[in-house]
UniProtKB/TrEMBL annotation:
Domain Cupin type-2 span(s) in chain numbering: 41-115
Keywords: Isomerase
Protein's name according to its UniProt entry: Mannose-6-phosphate isomerase, cupin superfamily
Organism: Facklamia miroungae
One GO MF term attached to the UniProt entry: isomerase activity
Amino acid sequence: MTFDFTDRGKKPVVENIEEWTKANDNYRTTVWTGSKMQMTLMTIQPGDDIGLEVHEGIDQFLRIESGKGLCQMGPAEDQLDFEQEVEDDFAIFVPADTWHNVTNTGDQPLKLYTLYAGPDHLPGTVHPTHEDAENDPNEH
């Protein structure tokens, strides 16, 4: 099956979310940016992570489609007092203004999708690697 990985935000879209997520090989691919919500697909390589971050005023939902990892959250960058192992079919709910990270602790890529309410990345953002994301001047 072939998927369209362009940002089709503000247009109706229906996809098989599990297959779409598993087909993505980029660190981050923004596939839908609306006025109040955004969806990205992510592939985190073994030993890598999404990057410790906080979204001011933005709630976030992540769903693990394949792989396993460690989710950490807390009120401050140096106070991640919530930790939970995650794997296939787990959902992660990150309240706005909460520091968080998800690290791939397995030996296979960690495949997930995430919803931001509202959008967090520029429409159409694609980062083939974590390094590309960190070096993008448009990111936080």
